[in-house]
């Protein structure tokens, strides 16, 4: 039986553990074969090298995520909103949400990123874990009718 609250909590827990650098928690949140990607919507933002990733397997994902987190400032706050389940296929639950991130600049909360996160949460019977996590950050605006789906 699908536990929607547990799916939501997993996504929120990932972002909290990421921001706080709780590296010891990360493995329990990811499947062994996890696949994580991140990029900007254009693929050529000024900070593309910093954000672009395509990693597979828990060890590779954790290594890249740790390097990425350690290179960023603290505090860093990622917030997931409008989380909803798109479909369920066996033990795989496809979820989509918005992501909004802030940090502190000159003593003020500063928005640094927003985007869309598509993920697959998988149940192994004992827990829900992230099997896929694909982030596309917003970097430019276009007329609604000109957007690419």
Task: Give a topology summary.
Blueprint: H1 4-19, H2 26-29, E1 30-40, H3 48-51, E2 53-56, H4 58-70, E3 76-89, E4 92-105, E5 108-123, E6 128-137
Parallel strand pairs: 1-6
Antiparallel strand pairs: 1-2, 3-4, 4-5, 5-6
Domain SnoaL-like: 2-132
Organism: Streptomyces antioxidans
Protein name: SnoaL-like domain-containing protein
- Low-pLDDT runs: none
Classify the fold: give the CATH topology.
Nuclear Transport Factor 2, Chain: A
The level of helicity is 10-25%
Gross morphology is: globular
- What is the number of strand segments? 6
Give me the strand/helix succession. Answer: HHEHEHEEEE
Strand content: over 45%
Radius of gyration: 15 Å
Structural class: alpha+beta
Number of DSSP helical runs: 4
| Second CATH tier, the architecture | Roll
How far the N terminus sits from the C terminus, by CA atoms, comes to 31 Å
Strand order of the biggest β-sheet: 2-1-6-5-4-3
């Amino acid at each position: 039986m699908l536990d929607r609250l547990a799916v939501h909590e997993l996504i929120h827990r990932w972002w909290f553990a990421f921001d706080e650098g709780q590296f010891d928690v990360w493995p329990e949140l990811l499947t062994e074969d996890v696949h994580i990607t991140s990029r900007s919507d254009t693929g050529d933002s000024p900070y593309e090298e910093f954000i672009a990733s395509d990693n597979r397997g828990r060890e590779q994902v954790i290594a890249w995520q740790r390097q990425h987190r350690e290179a960023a400032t603290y505090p860093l706050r990622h917030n997931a909103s409008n989380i909803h389940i798109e479909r369920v296929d066996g033990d795989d639950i496809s979820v989509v949400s918005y992501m909004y991130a802030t940090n502190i600049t000159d003593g003020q909360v500063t928005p640094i990123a927003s985007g869309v996160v598509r993920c697959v949460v998988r149940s192994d019977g004992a827990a829900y874990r992230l099997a896929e996590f694909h982030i596309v950050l917003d970097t430019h605006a276009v007329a609604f009718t000109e957007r690419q789906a």
